[in-house]
């Protein structure tokens, strides 16, 4: 069973930046395509970005394209989400998981963007 721990969230003003981290236990991380997801208050969890196991291909939701960058370091069992030019509508709890969401969800990390 893979354990996922997200970190790096916080309160930031619109236009600011944050870098989220996702630390994974287990050896299967390095063989799995991974994704970032987010859930805003009163809304369903939504896809943000995903990355192949090798890191050579990425896909982004239209709402974050050009502002967010997903990356990974398989040697460290860690995935990242660099977020720039943040907007109030990016406010949500951010989660990482296998790209199909099949692993157990972690606690997430809260990102709050003030206007």
Distance between the termini: 39 Å
Proportion in β-strands: over 45%
For the secondary structure, the number of strands is 10
Task: Summarize the biggest pleated sheet.
Answer: 6 strands, mixed
Structural class: mainly beta
Give the rounded overall mean pLDDT.
96
Uncertain spans, ≥5 residues at pLDDT below 50?
A: none
Shape: globular
Provide the spatial order of strands within the biggest beta sheet. 2-10-9-4-5-6
Order of helices and strands: EEEEEEEEEE
Helix content: under 10%
Number of helices, counting only DSSP H or I runs of 4 residues or more: 0
Q: Determine Rg (CA atoms, Å).
A: 13 Å
Structure write-up:
By secondary structure, this protein is mainly β. Helices cover 0% and strands 48% of the residues. The chain contains no helices and 10 strands. The protein has strands spanning 4-7, 10-13, 18-24, 34-39, 46-51, 58-60, 68-73, 78-83, 92-98, 109-114. The strands form 2 sheets. It has a 6-stranded mixed β-sheet with strand order 2-10-9-4-5-6, with no helix packed on it. Strands 1-3-8-7 form a 4-stranded antiparallel β-sheet, with no helix packed on it. A hairpin with a 6-residue loop joins strand 4 and strand 5 (46-51). It is globular, with a radius of gyration of 13 Å. The termini are far apart.
């Amino acid at each position: 069973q893979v354990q996922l721990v997200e970190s790096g969230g916080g309160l930031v003003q619109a236009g600011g930046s944050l870098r989220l981290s996702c630390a994974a236990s287990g050896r299967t991380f390095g063989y799995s395509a991974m994704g970032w997801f987010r859930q805003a208050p009163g809304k369903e969890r939504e896809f943000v970005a995903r990355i192949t196991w090798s890191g050579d291909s990425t896909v982004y939701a239209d709402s974050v394209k050009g502002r967010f960058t997903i990356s990974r370091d398989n040697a460290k069992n860690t995935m990242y989400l660099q977020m720039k030019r943040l907007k109030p509508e990016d406010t949500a709890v951010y989660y990482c998981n296998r790209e199909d969401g099949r692993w157990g969800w972690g606690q997430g990390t809260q990102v709050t963007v003030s206007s």
